Amino acid sequence: MELRRDPITQSWVAVGQRESLGELPVCPLDPDSVDQQPVILSFPAEGTWQVRVIPHPDPLYRVESEPARFAEGMYDKMAATGAHEVVIETRQHDKRMSQFSDEEIERVLSVWGARISDLKKDLRFKYVSIFKNQGALAGEEFSHAHSQITATIFVPRRIKYELVASHEWYKEKERCIFCDMVRQEEKSGKRIVDVQGDYYALCPYASRVPFEVWVMHRRHNHLFEQPRAGSNRRHLAALLGRVLRRLEKVAPAYHLVVHTSPNTRSKKGELAGYWKTLADDYHWHFEIMPIVESRSKSYSIKEVYFNAMLPEQAAETLRSLDSHS
Ligand SMILES: [Zn+2]
Ligand SMILES: [Zn+2]
Ligand SMILES: [Zn+2]
Questions:
Q1: Which domains does the chain have, with CATH numbers?
Q2: Cα 99 to averaged position of ligand 1 atoms, centre (Å)
């Protein structure tokens, strides 16, 4: 596995074959198998774990290698240095996150935060990604409820776009673009799916796929891993659970990503100049991209998303669905 940089878009791509794990006779994320493996984090720390983080058995990135760039003519490449971890979200094999209690979801959220904080202590890592692919159509790697964490020596392209755009907005208006967005959506209500306390779930104005949902805190904070004083993550957990239950009624699979600020301890790199106002201009959020049946799926023609469903209509449908079961 190596990282190659597209000289035009400047984005890094992991290229190469991963070792195959082969046919696994037992679920590698069941407690019996997991208890034999190295532990990165257990929650709770003592006694029977409810959420556990282990190294990915077939990692895309490896911690050992030193990040050095090589030139290959005009191109840049580097070893796939980084961390790749698996968060086992429950001990139970047949329980999806949408079936978790609010407390169980909150545990997973706090483990995500703890891992982001810990990985950011490593100055080599510029960004920590948390993502969850659920369902075969989403390329889910294990059927057992899990999410994945990667720490990379570059900032992923979409985050870079978001950072640049929110910085530009801030320079002009001295306001956070995400806060502005929540205020406007709050006022119109058309694209709001659900609200719990200060947390909002909404279908973004330019949704890329039908039923795309973002989950955001209405109060400003650039770091997911450091909740604002007075914020209630149980509310976030409750809202996420309801959103997932609604989405599962319209889509068999989804991708969920946590977008938070890059690692500002890493002073090197192309983004360092933006970080003076990062705490004011960036705002963490979750993006959920459901994968709907092919009949109404969105087409990416020449890399422009075409989404046949208006987000106003998507939000209305999602609001009308039962979020209790
Ligand atoms: Zn399992
Ligand atoms: Zn904000
Ligand atoms: Zn985002």
A1: 2-152 (3.30.428.10), 157-320 (3.30.428.10)
A2: 15
